[in-house]
Amino acid sequence: MGQGFRRMATIVRKEWLHIIRDPRTLALVIVMPVMMLGLLGYAVANDVEDIPLAVADLSHTDASRTLVEKFTVSGFYMVTHTAQNEAEILEMLDAGTVKAGIYIPEDFGRNISTGGSGTVQFYIDGSNPTIAQTAQLAAETVSQATSQQILIQRLERSGAGLAISLPIDTRIRYLYNPDMRRMNFMIPGLVAVILQVQTLLLTAFAIVREREQGTLEQLIVTPVRSWELILGKILPFVLVAFLNVAMTVGAGALLFGVEVAGSLVLLASLSLIFLLGSLGLGVLISTISRTQMQAMYMSSFIMLPSFLLAGLLFPRDNMPWLAYYAGYFLPVTYFLEIVRGIILKGVGFMTLWNWVWPMAVFSIVVFFASVLMFHKRL
After folding, report:
1. Do 225 and 253 fall within a single domain?
2. Which pTM does this prediction carry?
């Protein structure tokens, strides 16, 4: 029995020495859980507030300004943009700049002051049902509270004989997802995240596996340049991942009824940029990792935040600043907005430009970083 414990203690000591002699893996194992808890703990806060709101106030009266103020002080909305007409509001909603818009016509204040009813058009981006439902409830609550305040003022001036009717008629219109199907929101996001996970798994072990197997030496003695080797590692996986784009989009349409409202050519072109960046990120991880375990931990550090920080499950606008800005370091954050814009909204390239260029820059930077990090030596 005593000899058994001594033999086991010897094995424990041997394994412990392996752990402490690999400080990079040890740091990942110790630091990563704390960092993940900090980032993801903030991300799962699902309170919806400060919804970006665009306002087109053509009335410019006390009544219209009071209504807009009621929306802002409610805490659910934050006026981030002003518009001159309904068309500008719709453009902002297409681009994802705002999540809701209110159009107050020119005759609103005059109708209210003469004892009539003023009509207000309220637009809600229905692509995210979580935000849309909160936006609807808040809009109805603010409208009713403002109407009650106006009614009380009228009753005080005119007496009890006044006919009671709501002075503000808020007409809510859902865009992009009028049926409020959560599946319409989730499927495009899952397409992006699944591709992110797959591309990382395909390439994260590409170079580190050859290093462990000893086949990297054969590549080192060849005249192949660093950028040629990295590109050669990526291109075969690009074809596989590109096929998966078509399969996942097709499955989303056949199985869940989520059809592509925009251009398939545009979706394929921007998917290619995303895939190059994601595959390059996997090769970069593989290049800087010394063991497959290190590559696995580094990949996990990217894959798990991709589910939470990129906006797949929880609205990014309501995340604390740390989690919000951390999402910008994930290429899937940009691709999520692009995929949802094309599939749900049917928008074009110029509308998506603010998401396309940072994703393209990320892909270029990651590829060149992979080349610089890879030295043709062990």
Report:
1. yes
2. 0.74
